Amino acid sequence: MDDIFFYLSKYIWAVISPDSVFVILLTLCLLLFLLRQTKKATLLLGLLVFCTLFLSFFSVGDWMLYPLESRFQHNPDLPEQVDGIIVLGGSVIPDRSVEWQQLETNQFHERLSSFIQLAQLFPSARLVFSGGNADTDEDKPTEAQIAETYFLKSGISPERLLIENKARNTAENANYSRQLVSPQSNETWLMITTAYHMPRAMGVFCQQNWKVIPYPVDHKTLPSKLYQPGFGLIEHANHLILASHEWLGLLYYYISGKTHQLFPTQCNHSD
Fold it and tell me: 75-218, superfamily in CATH?
């Protein structure tokens, strides 16, 4: 069932992501012109041009990301005692790292740097990195292979570091990590992930009765300039894709029963 969930989510997103939808509609516009459906083609082309211009000047993606990023407190107040810290994968580019024989990351590198900082702040905490191969190509290396080497070279003791290398998505991050560390109800755990991804991650962890303190990083929005116009089509389009993926992910996880809430918040005692 997990395999079906994984592949289905990948293939559905490949079709309904904003960039794919734009290409599909643009192709449809060309076909309408070739079929001499000039009025329909012109109307569709005009709609695409309007959406492109609007997106060029207004970051619609930021409007969608901000509710996700502000769902949990940034720079949260931390307890004196922390028993464990878990960071979710998604920042390492495994095949590129192997190709160039060094750590290669994407825009979510703060997951790794914050993990190292918190590890130093809480020297007795157990440390967990969760990240396998999130690609449909099963022959690609896992994030865990690269991250482990990076953390050890960064000074983290191998006795403290636990590596979970099978998870392909957020639901599996929580499931496999829980099996690995068997967290107790009286333990205090921190969970690090990108701010806009935190609601879905918290929903999954709560669903599996693992109460963690959210530590969101990698914020993408500037709240003080959220509605100010400014030309930046590529950045705006990228944020729209990120936001669309996350909101659809929340809906998909809720419908499939992997979270109790459509827009998760802190765990309740009943979860």
Answer: HUPs (3.40.50.620)
Dihedrals phi, psi of 128, to nearest 5 degrees: -125, 125
Structure tokens at 43: 């109307």
Are residues 242 and 220 in contact, defined by beta-carbon separation less than 8 angstroms?
A: yes
- Taking the model in full, what pTM does it have? 0.92
Domain map (residue ranges) of the chain: 2-68+230-250, 75-218
Q: Residue 181: helix, strand or coil by DSSP? A: helix
Non-local CB neighbours of 149 within 8 Å, separated by 6+ positions: 103
Cα Rg of the chain, angstroms:
21
Task: In whole angstroms, give the CA distance from residue 179 to residue 186.
Answer: 17
Kindly report, residue by residue over 6-49, the tens digit of the pLDDT.
Answer: 888 888 999 999 999 999 999 999 999 999 999 999 999 999 99
DSSP code at position 167: -
Q: For residue 27, give the nearest of 37, 41, 14 by alpha carbon.
A: 41
